[in-house]
Structures are given as C-alpha cells and as structure tokens.
Amino acid sequence: MQSESKSGAIRPDMFTPVNRDSKQSEKIERPRLTAWQDIRLRLLSNKLAMTGLWIMVVVVLFAIFAPIFSSYDHFTNDLSNTNQAPSKEHWFGTDDLGRDLFARTWKGAQVSLFVGIVAGLIDLFFGIIYGGIMGYYGGKVDEFMNRFAEILYAIPYLLVVILLLVVMEPSLTTIIVAMSITGWINMAWIVRGQMMQLKNQEYALASKALGAGSMRIIFRHLIPNAMGPILVTLTLTVPSAIFTEAFLSFLGLGVQSPVASWGTMINDGVKSMTIYPWRLLFPAFFLSLTMFAFNVFGDGLRDAFDPKLKT
Amino acid sequence: MIRYVLKKFMFMLMSLFFLITATFVLMNAVPGSPLQSEKATSEQIQKNLEAYYGLDKPLIVQYGVYLKNLVQGDLGISMKKKFQAVDKIIGDSFKYSLKLGLVSIVTSVVVGCILGIISAMYHRKFLDNFSMILAVIGLSIPSLVIAPVLQYLLAVKIEAFEVAGLNRPMDYVLPTIALSAASIAFIARLIRSTMIEVLNSDFIKTAKSKGLAGHLIVWRHALRNSMLPVVTFLGFLMANVITGSVVIEKIFAIPGLGKFFVESVSNRDYPLIMGITIFYAVILMISRLLADIAYVLVDPRIRISGGKAGK
To answer: Which range marks the domain in which residue B125 is found?
Structure first.
C-alpha cells in the first residue's frame, strides 16, 4: 500500500466500471430446484444411504422371487438330508428336518418384511389421523388426546405385545395387531408437532379464509407438507418392527412352524450352533443386513430432508 | 418443579393402573383355567386349587383382592413353580439381572461417550466415519444375533470365555457386549451430534482464542454441555437393558428375571407373567420419571411450566 501511494497519484484509468446491468446481477446461475429435487439430490449423493437402498431392493427382490424360483420350498421335510452343510444342492444347507435353508431364509424375509411394512403402514395411518387432529385443533382437544397417548405410551411397548400374544393365538395377524396398539403413538407425536408448526402458515390461513373445512385443510394442505418427517419416521419404524417380530419369534410367541421367520430360524439355530453353525449364521446375517439397510437409508433420508440436522 | 414432578407422577400412576387392569382382564379372558393339566385331578382337588388361588370368587372380587395385595407388595403365587410366591421369584432372580444391567448401563455410557467424543473431535475424518459406521452396525445387529454369534466365536471356537453362566467377573464380558451394543451406538451418535454443535458455539471459540489446549476444551467445556441428552436417554437405556436381558439371559443361561419371564410366558404361568410385567413396568416408568426430573435439574434452560421435557 505504502509503496503504491508513493509511486504516483490515483488516476481514473486505474479503475474499470463495475458491470451494473441489473438483468445480469439478478440472473440465477444454478438450475432451479424444487424442494423435492433438492432432497433427491442430497439423498443420491449420500453413498451410505444409497448402499442401504440397494441392499433393501436386493433383499426385497430375493424375498419375492427366491421362493418362486428355488427348487425347494420352505416346509417340505426331507429326513434323509438333515443338517446338511451349504452345498450346490442346498445353498444355505438344511435344518434338522431336512428343509432347505435357502428357501426358508427367503420365506423368512417375506414374513419379516411383511410384518415390518404392514406395521409401519398401520402406524402411519393411525398416527396421521390422531396426530393430525391433535395438532390442528390444539387446545382442549389436544390436551385430552395427548394425555391419552401419554398414558398409553408410558406402558412399555414390548410388554403389551408379549401380554397380548400370550392370550391370543400366535399368528402374523396377532403380531401385527399387538405391535400396532401402541406403535402409532410416536408417529402421532411427529405429525402433531408438524401440524402445530404448519397450521398458522399463510397457505393454511388462506385456505381457511376461502372456506375450506378443517378436514380438507389437514389432509389436503398440511399433511402433504409434513410428509418429510413422516416418511423418515416410517423408514425407521420398519426396522424396529422387523426387530420386534424376530424378538417375539425368538421367544416362541411369533409365527409358528412350518412358516419360517428369521426369529424362529435364529432360535432353532442357537440350539444347534456348536455343530451346525450355518443354521444360525444365515438368518442372523440377513436379519442384520436388512435392519442395517433400513437404518442407514432412514438416516440418509432424515439428513436429506433436514440438512440442518446433519452436522 | 414440585408441581411438575407431582403431575408426572400422577400420570405414571394412571398408566400403571391402566396396565394392571388391562393385564388382569387379559389374563382372565383366556379360555380354560391355567390350573388344568394333562393329569386327571379329582373334582375336589380342582376345587381346592381354585380356592387356594381365589379363582372361585367372582372376577371383580379377584381384581379387588389382587389390587389390595399388590399395594402391599404381594404379587400372588406362581401356578407352575411349586407354589412359590411371585415376589420371591422376582426378588431372587432380579439380583442377577440388576448386576448385569448396571454393568451394561455403565459400559454403554462410558464407551458410548468415548466413541462420540472421538467422532466429534475428528469430525469428517477417518476415525469419525469409522466409529459412526460401527455405530450404525451396532444399532442394526439385534442382541439376539450378537449374543449367539459372540458365544459361538469366542466361547465355543476359541474358548476364551465360558459359554454360559455368570459366576466370575470374566463371565460378564460377553453378555455385557451383547446387551450394550445398541445403547453404545445410540449414545455415541447422540454425543457426537450435540458435541459437534457445542464445539461450534461461541464459548468454545472463546476458550480456543484464549489459548486453552484442545483436550482441555473438550473435557472442561464441551463434554459437560454435551451430556444433557444422555440424561434423557435413561428411559431408553432401561428399556433396552430389560428387553435385551430377556433374550440374553436365555442365551447365556443366566438365572435372571428375563429368563423367568420367558419361562413364565412359555409356561403360561399367569400370576408370574403379571407380576414380572408389572415389575418391569414400574422400573421403566420410574426411570423415565427420573430422566424427566434429571433433565430439568441439569438444564436450567428448560421451562418447566407446561413444557414437555423429553417425551
């Protein structure tokens, strides 16, 4: 600085005018993205989440098609081929009744995924209705409904499920019903929080001013805008439901033989793991892999919806 | 503060009452008497048995008697375990579960905090990514998979540990790992995200600019402020230890409460199921209440009046 001022006075030709074209300065350089495109971009660039997504896709495809194309089924006993190690014939080996473990593993995947997804959807359905009404109306309605949910929530989830299964016939339907009785509360609270935030936004007020009914505002305007956290909660509900099913089947309260489930297979596998470890390892591996995939995808989805959360 | 605690306590009692009533109704809704067995008993013996358990009285009287005994700490008599009192069974077995549970909780908090701190300090570097992937894996592999796999690899194959039992300090290692994996992962993620936030806050910058060494900043300033969410985590931690112990005590043949719970469920021993359910529920609710209180005590910024501290 000092040396420059010494070398001479400031002359006008040392300066060039700034381009003051207002059209240029207002130009948007980057392509316009809607919120959903933005979310998709963030999700696609998250490698871990995409790995999770691909694992999910592969597991689902195998669960659907492997039992169809396998030359064995999950329930036929073959007492001349019991406890076979994995081989060309039986890819994952066989169990103590000679049933093909490859077929059983994927039948188990069907059961686990079915329970996970149906339980998730039921939670979604009741959670949205209950939470939506609770959050939108607020005041006395909210107070009352919230108290009810709190009382129900304080009762430990797994105890309720176990109690119900003790007194009801064990079956897939029973498991799902039992899981849904208290499972929806979390979703309801998420929706409630969103509703309270969104209901005073301009578009909701505008809709109200135009004479829309409460139900229309809740389900046409507010719920679609709250879809982000709802989806994230849904993806994280599925692995916990899969876990609960495995846990219950492990305790002998879940699906009953000959239907396979990862939980029952692990339970059978534990009994014979010293001699036939593959009977434990295959269902254990795929159960963990599926839960891992749902968890990382759910995490990625949450980060994609709310980049502020990701630090 | 006192009003807040009292209010929470009232809700806890309501939930508990709800649960006890529901359990009682469910257990009595099961067709057939739990006293019937394969062995033919004379009518007189059957009547005497029913009188012994109070089953000859009308349901509402039974309910009243059960509630009255419950308040006095009497949970009834087991129907399958040679007329042992339920509270005695719980008392005898709970000490094993308690020891294992405490070891597991301490391990979870310590290891979880260390992993979380390392992650936060080496944010977006190798160590961070590594421990976070480890955390997702820990969250994804259910205890009913970790326990038998550890047992198979470390106790059966290498024989480094006892396969089952809980007699020497070394015996705690495998069950503790299996029981704590999920909580460690959860705490590590929690600590990491709050710690990163705290490390970016102004008071840390002040500490840095006055020349405090890096590790001192973490220990003196950041950690204390990052511990808050862990306090609210107590409820989840207890629930996790209890559900985990049900599976793990079964796998490692530990004569704890979880093992008796599984047994009572498969034996359909209704008084024992009810007793353990209520016992578990009380523990969980109390730890949730304590977590709520601790949260308010630890962080004066939380508004108590009307605010819902950590659901």
So the answer is: 87-310
